[in-house]
Design a protein that fits this description.
The protein is α/β, with parallel strands linked by helices. The chain has a single domain, classed as Metallo-beta-lactamase, Chain A (4-Layer Sandwich). Helix content is 38%, strand content 21%. The chain has a 7-stranded mixed sheet with strand order 1-2-3-4-5-6-7, covered by helices on one side. α2 links the parallel β4 and β5. The radius of gyration is 19 Å and the shape is globular.
Length: 283
């Protein structure tokens, strides 16, 4: 397992270097299993499931990515497209108009309707179909389950699983071996993300994993990510119970077993602060 994780970490480092150099502007459509693809471009991933009765896309990820993804799908099939939103964040949900113009149906957790309607630029297609706790899509020979385990990366977060194909997609709550900056954490529900990781690990079966941002992931990374969030929660909780301020915790909380993660040194204090906020406010 260690060799697998080392290889993934190296690939992640290379992917970030490529992104910085502009190489990630090239769209890449990778077939993970029969009819199931990961479209990756400019640090964002979409899930694409192609069947003889239609195509399902998870996340449009901005207009330029959606246009490039549409072109890649057209190389493989002329079947119509349906769109699922993983959550409400505009960087993942904008860009769907190209599919709406073709008659696509848009599906999301029910809380997304009001949140997506806030887009002052009107670049988000508001969902046509919503669900509360679970929703199953049967398209051709593929089954896609959407599950709401509560807020995490976004307030109306869907965990996407293809149970028969054992494919899992995690967007924003699954960013393995990578600590994002404070700006990216502004709406992150860290306690909710912990709950999501626990439930995914205990309730779902998968052997293939897609991260909404990184080009490479793997099932072996989920336990490691859960261990990080558990450790972060425990350290911040203990500090708060002992009367430490958030500023003190940002200086004193260290998680050395994860110090090889990308941007650990630069961004761990922001994660400590966000976890404290989540503990205080419940989101």
């Amino acid at each position: 397992m260690k060799s697998i994780l080392t290889a993934i970490a190296a690939a992640t480092t290379l992917a970030n270097a490529a992104f910085a150099a502009g190489d990630e502007m090239n769209p890449v459509m990778t077939e993970l299993k029969d009819g199931i693809y990961q479209f990756h471009m400019a640090h964002y991933s979409s899930l694409v499931a192609i069947t003889n009765q239609g195509v399902l896309v998870v996340d449009t990820n901005h207009e330029f990515r959606a246009e490039a993804m549409r072109a890649e799908i057209a190389k493989l099939t002329d079947q119509p497209v349906e769109v699922v939103y993983s959550h409400d964040h505009f960087d993942h949900s904008r860009g769907g108009q190209i599919f709406k113009d073709e008659g696509a149906e848009f599906i999301a957790q029910e809380g997304c309707v009001e949140l997506m309607s806030r887009d002052q630029e009107n670049r988000v297609v508001v969902p046509d179909v919503t669900y509360a706790d679970e929703h199953r899509i049967e398209l051709g020979d593929k089954i896609i389950d959407l599950k709401y385990f509560g807020s995490s990366g976004g307030q109306c977060q869907s965990v996407i699983q293809m149970p028969e194909d054992k494919v899992l997609m995690g967007v924003d709550w699954h960013l393995p071996r990578f600590l994002v900056s404070n700006a990216r954490l502004n709406t992150h529900d860290y306690v909710g993300a912990l709950n999501t990781l626990r439930r995914v690990s205990s309730e779902l079966d998968y052997d293939t994993v897609i991260s909404g941002h990184l080009e490479h992931s793997a099932p072996e990374l989920l336990p490691e990510e859960l261990a990080f969030v558990e450790a972060l929660y425990a350290a911040v909780w203990e500090g708060l119970q002992n009367g430490k301020t958030v500023e003190e915790l940002k200086e004193t909380v260290k998680l050395p077993e994860f110090d090889q993660w990308l941007f650990y040194k630069e961004n761990l204090p922001a994660h400590v602060e966000r976890m404290a906020y989540a503990i205080w406010h419940g989101h």
